[in-house]
């Protein structure tokens, strides 16, 4: 990186961290530390929800996913607007009415302490693990660019977030989200424009999309109903609906964001706007990935996008074998460029026969490229061991290799800011649950507010250390954005099932829902281990099983002496 | 008390009209209309994405 990049990167980070600490000058109460004093307008709520969901993982993995797998990932978000409607109608009024700090507090009023503790535990486990992945994402960038040891990179990047989250709490988190989202949006647009600018002169934006489309990357919609197909309209609408409903309605990292709204109306509008904006935003991020793919059809891409791993193999006995594969790859790419230009020319002329010929030739070349890449990955695995998935490096490598001085620093700062936004929300929510659901409820019930603020700061510190520890193991997973969603799907369905029983099944009592959720979770984990279905469906399965088991248990083994409580 | 969309409980001292409109954007007059707009937008996006895909593929 050029010194100018370093200056841009350093100044941006110093500004955000200082701002976060500046927000913590005021004396904090429990309400302001955990829920920003319930003072935020709707646009703060919307941007905070989006910043919490769209971490560095979104920014890094999604373009890489579009590059390798096309744009079909956008279907994953189709259930989100529907989930936002249900949240506005059911969850926001309930949580506002009870003036809860965490979503799980509500469950004790409806069921009992045991059920509250179970859901809180599932949340802490799932969120603690997935936040580790969110810390790993920017660490990946720094280690790739600077050659830093990943362990220290995780400690530094996770530690910076701890600084302002511990001092500023939820208020600092919400205010920094606003700036982060503004910078991210502008930078994504600039990155997209730059990719188009780097295309050959005779190739326009639409030509690039046509090339990507003919090579199967504009696969936005798939109406085929297939339980084993990860992304199609139905898995997105149904499975995605349950995942998003559970994520936004029962995951404290999101509940804690919309509960910062200054009134129920502001919280609801914040959620509604998130429902309207999220899919177009995700579409644009994936579009950047497709444009990067189109760019690399005219300019030879690297054989493997993670340069650190490539540098490593070149110092081993496998160097000559790898170099031979690189030469083979370069040869195929050199012959590919005229074919791609021929395709764009045929597209302009509307010559269907020529288009079909070019398309078939390119498909064969792509298959050859795929084979060489597989051979290279096998070799890299043999030489270096560990994971050889480079999906997360594709966009990053493009940024470093082609963006001008200053922009590289800015985009790396943006990736770090995006990560900081989601990690900060996670730290804050993990601390909220630990203090409100465990410490305040079970350990020290009647301390004053300042004691709980101090406890929240210690809890934030503890979870920060835990998440950094988890980050050390994240590199063994494939695409991080998928890993996070798979992890969420293992727990979210069951948690959602508990909440839906609480809201809509007034005759089911605590014992039935508790054991129903334990059995449901065992089924979900077993289904995942045995690979019975695509992960998005686990949300629906988990939710349905909890409701069904709880209903059956209540019928077979009714809980006597309990007055049915209204939700 | 039964909760509904236009009658949130923590609305101390506000008239029913101002409560029901709290947070509503100017282009709709009820929350129900806003939800219809959201679902309509989703349907429109799916159609647009389908047309985008068929055009470029």
From TrEMBL, chain A:
Look up and give the membrane topology term.
Answer: Multi-pass membrane protein
Which Gene3D superfamilies does the protein's record reference? Answer: Sodium/glucose cotransporter (1.20.1730.10)
Where is the chain membrane-spanning? 6-22, 42-62, 74-96, 117-139, 145-166, 178-199, 231-250, 271-296, 405-431, 452-474, 486-505, 512-530, 536-553
Q: Record's InterPro entries?
A: Na/Glc_symporter_sf, Na/solute_symporter, Sodium:Solute_Symporter_SSF
Record flagged with keyword Membrane: yes
Q: Please state which protein family the record places this protein in.
A: Belongs to the sodium:solute symporter (SSF) (TC 2.A.21) family.
Q: What is this protein called?
A: Na+/proline symporter
UniProtKB/TrEMBL annotation, chain B:
Any transmembrane segments, and where?
Answer: 34-53
Q: Domain of life of the organism in this record?
A: Bacteria
Q: Which UniProt key words apply to this protein?
A: Membrane, Transmembrane, Transmembrane helix
Location of the region described as Disordered in the Swiss-Prot/TrEMBL record = 1-20
Q: What name does the UniProt record give this protein?
A: Uncharacterized protein
* Organism of derivation: Dyadobacter arcticus
């Amino acid at each position: 990186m050029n010194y100018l990049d370093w200056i841009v990167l350093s100044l941006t980070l110093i500004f955000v961290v200082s701002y976060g600490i500046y927000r913590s000058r005021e004396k904090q109460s429990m309400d302001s530390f955990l829920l920003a004093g319930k003072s935020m307008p709707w646009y703060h709520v919307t941007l905070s929800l989006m910043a919490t969901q769209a971490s560095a993982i979104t920014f890094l993995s999604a373009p890489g996913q579009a590059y390798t797998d096309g744009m079909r990932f956008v279907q994953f978000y189709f259930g989100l607007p529907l989930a936002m409607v249900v949240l506005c109608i059911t969850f926001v009024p309930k949580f506002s009415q009870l003036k809860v700090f965490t979503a799980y507090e509500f469950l004790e009023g409806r069921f009992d302490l045991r059920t509250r503790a179970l859901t809180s535990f599932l949340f802490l486990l799932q969120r603690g693990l997935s936040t580790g992945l969110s810390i790993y994402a920017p660490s990946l960038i720094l280690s790739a660019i600077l050659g830093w040891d990943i362990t220290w990179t995780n400690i530094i990047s996770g530690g910076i977030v701890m600084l302002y989250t511990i001092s500023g709490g939820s208020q600092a988190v919400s205010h920094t989200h606003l700036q982060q989202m503004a910078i991210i949006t502008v930078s994504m647009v600039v990155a997209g424009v730059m990719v188009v600018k780097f295309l050959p002169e005779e190739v326009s934006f639409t030509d690039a999309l046509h090339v990507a489309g003919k090579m199967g990357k504009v696969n936005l919609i798939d109406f085929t109903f297939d339980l084993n197909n990860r992304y199609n309209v139905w898995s997105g609408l149904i499975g995605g609906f349950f995942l998003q409903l559970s994520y936004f309605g029962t995951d404290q990292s999101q509940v804690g964001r919309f509960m910062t709204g200054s009134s129920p109306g502001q919280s609801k509008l914040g959620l509604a706007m998130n429902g309207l904006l999220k899919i177009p935003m995700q579409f644009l991020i994936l579009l950047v990935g497709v444009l990067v793919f189109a760019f690399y059809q005219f300019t030879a891409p690297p054989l493997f996008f993670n340069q650190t791993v490539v540098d490593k193999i070149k110092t081993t006995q496998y160097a000559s074998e790898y170099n031979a594969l690189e030469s083979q790859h370069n040869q195929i790419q050199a012959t590919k460029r005229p074919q791609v230009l021929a395709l764009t020319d045929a597209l302009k002329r509307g010559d269907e026969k020529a288009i079909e010929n070019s398309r078939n030739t390119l498909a064969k070349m792509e298959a050859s490229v795929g084979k060489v890449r597989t051979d290279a990955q096998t070799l890299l695995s043999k030489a270096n061991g560990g994971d050889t998935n480079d999906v997360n490096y594709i966009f990053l490598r493009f940024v470093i290799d082609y963006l001008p001085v200053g922009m590289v620093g800015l985009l790396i700062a943006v990736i770090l800011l995006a990560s900081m936004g989601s990690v900060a929300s996670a730290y804050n929510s993990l601390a909220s649950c630990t203090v409100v659901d465990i410490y305040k409820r079970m350990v020290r019930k009647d301390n004053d507010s300042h004691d709980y603020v101090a406890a929240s700061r210690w809890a934030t510190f503890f979870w920060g250390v835990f998440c950094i520890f988890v980050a050390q193991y994240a590199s063994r997973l494939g695409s991080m954005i998928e890993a996070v969603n798979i992890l969420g799907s293992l727990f979210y369905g069951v948690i959602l099932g508990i909440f839906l029983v609480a809201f809509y099944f007034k005759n089911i009592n605590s014992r039935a829902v508790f054991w129903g959720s334990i059995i449901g979770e065992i089924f979900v984990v077993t289904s995942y281990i045995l690979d019975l279905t695509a992960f998005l469906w686990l949300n629906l399965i988990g939710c349905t099983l909890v409701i069904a088991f709880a209903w059956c248990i209540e019928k077979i083994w009714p809980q006597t002496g309990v007055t049915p409580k209204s939700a | 008390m039964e909760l509904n969309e236009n009658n949130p409980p923590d609305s101390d001292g506000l008239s029913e009209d101002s409560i029901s409109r709290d947070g509503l954007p100017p282009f709709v007059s009820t929350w129900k209309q806003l939800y219809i707009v959201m679902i309509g937008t989703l349907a429109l996006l799916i159609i647009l994405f389908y047309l985008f895909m068929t055009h470029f593929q």
